[in-house]
Amino acid sequence: MKDDTGPRGAPVSPGSPENSQVFVYDTTLRDGSQSEDVQFTLEDKIRVAECLDQLGIDYIEGGWPGANPKDIEFFRRIREVSLTHSRISAFGSTRKSGNRTSEDAVLRALIDARTPVVTIFGKSWSLHVEDILGISRRANLEMIRESCDFLKQAGRELVYDAEHFFDGFRENPDFALETLRAAEEGGADWIILCDTNGGSMPWEVERALREVRHSIRTPLGIHAHNDSELAVANSLTAVRAGATQVHGTINGIGERCGNANLVSVIADLVLKLETSVTSARELSRLREVASFVFEIQNRPLPKNQPFVGESAFAHKAGVHVHAIRKNRRAYEHILPEAVGNTQRILLSEHSGRSNLAEKAREYGIPLDSGSPEAVKMLSTLKELEHEGYQFEGAEASFELLMRSASPEYVPYFEIDFFHVRMEQRKDIGEGLSEATIRVRVGDRTEHTAALGNGPVNALDNALRKALGTFYAGVNEITLLDYKVRVLAGAHGTASRVRVLIESSMDSRKWGTVGVSENVITASLLALKDSIVYGLLKSGTVPRG
Ligand SMILES: CC(=O)SCCNC(=O)CCNC(=O)[C@H](O)C(C)(C)COP(=O)(O)OP(=O)(O)OC[C@H]1O[C@@H](n2cnc3c(N)ncnc32)[C@H](O)[C@@H]1OP(=O)(O)O
Ligand SMILES: CC(=O)C(=O)O
Q1: I need a labelling partner for 497 at 20 to 30 A (CA). Which of 119, 169, 263, 344 fits?
Q2: How far is the CA of 486 from the centre of ligand 2 (A)?
Q3: Which helix (H) or strand (E) holds 519?
Q4: 167 in ligand 2 pocket by Cβ < 6 Å?
Q5: Nearest-CA residue for atom 26 of ligand 1
Q6: What SS3 state is found at 424?
Q7: Which keywords annotate this record (predicted)?
Q8: What whole-number distance in Å separates Cα of residue 296 and Cα of residue 293?
Q9: What angle do CA 376, 499, 305 make, to 5 degrees?
Q10: For the complex shown, is ipTM > 0.90?
Q11: Interatomic CA distance for residues 521 and 224, integer angstroms
């Protein structure tokens, strides 16, 4: 961990006016961990810090030393990690009113954390000074000045977070500016204007930034919360108005509605504002970092997350797919690869021939989008979707449908018939199911039976047992997920259902679908496609 140089290895000269570099300050491990349902273990925190370092983040706020044992331990452990770029910051508040700085527990803990950077927050809004801290405005100014001075005397790079700056500035601009001056007099290297309650509008942020720049020489930054869904917009507005440090969290996690999403902020800074940001060199790692931070929280990355979500460059509408095949800029605001994402074409009732042609190309199936085969396949797709099929999450079933339309297609197997019997007895507790099935492979048949803990499990076992005689690879296919959805418009337990199955083999995953009024039949259709697709992708040749 470096402690005497700036983010690019040069002596620290944060945000000097001639320097158009914008410094990115990540608070995923501090403000991010104040998010409901987020809890990082110590190991998680270290791994996230390493990941942020590789992304080229300039500052990583690791936590509040003294708030809990984990954060104290984090600052000890992170000293043993050799980060290549990021500077670690310890976060806390100005001293308590009435305390001497040298005896204040919060300030002492910040020094003891032995980080190159320290960040403290102080009050800018008279409401907080009077109603929350219950002290005079003058006492608040002293707290800010003395706390900053104390930490600077200790040799730290000092970031001063002006908490609730925009609310304070709206209500009493003179006092809000006085608090910033106190931090400047105390020697803060950075003054960060915080939209703590997330209620500010971009035009308010712009006006405040411009006014602050008239009276404050210290480099400015922005720390925006997302309560009005404007945290990213407010951050970019602040940069355009002169802020040279931007705070945020990966995927926008944070207190209440979260913080500015750094994933979007970085992408916008680099790709839209053409700002110099160190992370620009690693931009194509954005999707990987976003996924990683959620993965360790056991949370899926939202599909529609801008830039990095799975749907960010997924095209469903026929008109869109038709256009992007000619020029992808028609419906893509950036190249998905720039942020580590990829273009996807979806299949649904909203598809046109262009979707099919693109999918056929992906599958390696010859199909001319103007051919009668394409028209017929499109109408089959729409009819099936109308019946309740949904191929978006079950593309393997659609690929098989397309393949089976070819006159050369040889089926792997057919199911002649099946029976399922279930027994549920009070005395044995768990129920037992038995399935029998006869499969046909070419001119040979195999008739087997198997048990299972439920009817679908028994059927799956019986099908694999029968097919095992012909295709050894069937047992390599694993079922990962099984979902049943009752389709709207039908009647109670007689409703039509859709079964979606997710399967895997080696590192490949695929989804298949079956629809029927009978949940067992729907399951068998999805199971059958799952196995056929697995055999196809493993290179197994059908025994015709
Ligand atoms: C805008 C933000 O996100 S700021 C960061 C907020 N993050 C957190 O609060 C997470 C970590 N916090 C904690 O673990 C605890 O709240 C601690 C350890 C910091 C403090 O715990 P406690 O001493 O039990 O106090 P408690 O949480 O009830 O109250 C907060 C205290 O901070 C004081 N305080 C709040 N802001 C400031 C400030 N800028 N400067 C000095 N003191 C402050 C309050 O006056 C109150 O102290 P008091 O009870 O002596 O009046
Ligand atoms: C400092 C901080 O987290 C805030 O004002 O939101």
Answers
A1: 344
A2: 46
A3: helix 519-537
A4: no
A5: 67
A6: coil
A7: Amino-acid biosynthesis, Branched-chain amino acid biosynthesis, Isoleucine biosynthesis, Transferase
A8: 6
A9: 85
A10: yes
A11: 53
Q: Which amino acid is located at 521 in the chain?
A: T
For residues 147 and 186, the answer to whether their CB atoms sit within 8 Å is yes
Q: Which domains does the chain have, with CATH numbers?
A: 23-295 (3.20.20.70), 314-387 (no CATH), 413-470 (3.30.160)
CA distance 444 to 440: 6
Helices (H), 137-194: 137-153, 165-171, 173-185
- What DSSP state is assigned to residue 500? E
Contact yes or no for 420/435 (Cβ under 8 A)? yes
- The answer for 114, left when phi > 0, alpha when psi is -120 to 50, beta otherwise, is left
How many Å apart are CA 387 and CA 515, to the nearest integer? 8
Q: Are 28 and 263 in contact (CB under 8 A)?
A: no
Distance separating alpha carbons of residues 116 and 157, to the nearest angstrom: 6
What are the helix and strand counts (H, E) for the chain? 17, 16
Lookup: tokens for 496: 């039509």
Stated pTM of the model: 0.88
- Segment 25-43 shows an average pLDDT of 97
The tokens for 62 are 């690791």
CB 161 less than 6 A from any atom of ligand 2: yes
Interval 270-285: pLDDT, tens: 999 999 999 888 999 9
For residue 179, which ligand has an atom nearest its CA? 1
Mind listing the pLDDT tens digit for each residue in 235-245? 999 999 999 99
